[in-house]
Amino acid sequence: MILRKIFRAVIFFFLAAFGALNLYPLLWMLMYSFKDGTEIFVTNPLGFPQQFRFDNYVRAFTGTNIPTAFANSALVTVFSVIGAVFLASTFAYAVARSDWKWRGPARMFVMMGMFIPLQIIIIPLAILVRDLKLSNTYPSLIVPYIAFNIPFATMIFYGYLRTLPFELEESATIDGATFYQAFFKIIMPMIAPALISMVIFLSLAVWNEFFLALMLINKTAMKTLPLMVLAFQGHFSTDWGAIGAVLVISSIPTVLLYLFFSKQVEKAMSISVIIKG
Amino acid sequence: MINAKTHRGAILSFTLPTLVVFSVVVFYPLLQTLFRSLCDWNGLFKIKFIGLKNFANLFGEDLFYRSLVNGLWFAGVLVLVQIGLGSLLAFKISELREKRQRFFIVTYFLPVVLSVVVVCQLWVSILEPESGLINQIFKVLGLPFRQHWLTNPKTTIFATAFVNAWQFWGYEFLILLTSIKAIPSDYLDAARIDGAGVWRVRWHIQLPLLSEAYKIVFTMAIAGGLSAFSQMYIMTSGGPGTASYTLTYMMIRSSFYIGEYGYACAAGVVLVAQCLLATILINRFLNKNDGAL
User: Fold this and answer.
1) Do A240 and A40 meet the contact criterion of CB atoms below 8 Å apart?
2) Is residue B164 within 8 Å of B114, Cβ to Cβ?
3) pLDDT, tens digit, for every residue of A95-113?
4) Residues of A in contact with B274 (CB under 8 A)
5) Can you tell me the distance from the alpha carbon of A97 to that of B7, in angstroms, rounded to the nearest whole number?
6) Would you put residue B82 in left (φ > 0), alpha (ψ -120 to 50) or beta?
7) Chain A within 8 Å of B32 (Cβ-Cβ)?
8) ipTM of this complex
């Protein structure tokens, strides 16, 4: 009995040690954002900063466009997530709970989108954006982000919506509710957990999105956070402390969001697996 | 059931926007890529149908084969690290208590929520030959083993693959963990009552029920590896030279840097065909296990 307990404790220790090892690079990054060049490379690479050099952070803010990039990312994320969740939930509702004769093909059509990798459409998409004179605009990012996240969100909402009893609409109609009232006032609150999970999950995904943004945006003022961080590779080439500060600053939003809402993210993933299977 | 005939307008108002957005942003470009891969296209108005010539040129180029091989290596590393590690830890963590599980889930998943740019730049400094973390650690341990991880053509693809693996293995881990937890405990209890040991339970009961989850993680790892781009772009610019090129990189370079859009589309088509093939093989291979139950 005791042997078992010891065994369990040892396993736990190894799992935790592994976790610490896994996260050590992040800790190292945090630490070196407070150090200066000599400390990072020569005197104290692995240890706690001897002195907290906040001027790294000052240089990070003044030498870069962090506020602008933050604002760009925030704007794009908010609109993309709201758009995707709204379109996906309404679409899933119409398809899950009506006897519309095109509901099967419509759903298949959108689901196929999950299997279409970004790489195969990026070239014509970039050209389309250019030809529509929408280069370097917010819609050029928001609309594709919405389109790409609709399939996944639809899948989740569809699964959820199918589990609700159909009597709900019937009693709503008896009470005189219209189609829209039934959806917004009765059904939507019932799928609130799914809506919240999706909002969190998609926010993380869109905020960090890199490839599409890289292909579609090249004007500095319009760059989202990932693009701006990349642009600093050249700018701060030897100022490791400032680079570290930039990296830390840009990681704070999503790390905080995740730490607060890790349960919702987990829920979104588990539902998606169960539904796919 | 909502009666579609009475609510026709409302249903269309709910479905049409999604269908339109989707068709314009995803479907139409997809068709364009397929069609343009058969053309000589400079991205503007000069389009000339040339049949399979782009593909012929593609298969004749050395860079194509290097990209292909790199993609396979990348996928291999991802499968080994992300799925191997993810599985091992998913099974172990699933045996812990709820509260403790949460701690590990957050710890392992955290790198996933970071921006790929941040992770790559961090690892560039870690892998730096002179003063990077890894070589510093070797120094501290007294080992003379120092590597130019990113600038050595032989190791660069593995280094970039490892960075991707490090960032995203938590994702595979979480998928597997939630699937393991979804298996009703009665199945396992029944087996244990029948006297089955841990490994028999694992092999004959848990794994077959996890076949869907494994299909998902294998598809993610392999398709992700084949189409890798960001790590190379940020960390080595495809280098040194072209040692860490992948198909996606070829595609981007051919179109936006060289202006041969038709050729780039052809590369894209090959890439997608690869991913499709991988998905089909994965499905076929992992469906066999269903028969065991």
Assistant:
1) yes
2) no
3) 988 888 888 899 999 988 8
4) none
5) 12
6) alpha
7) yes
8) 0.90
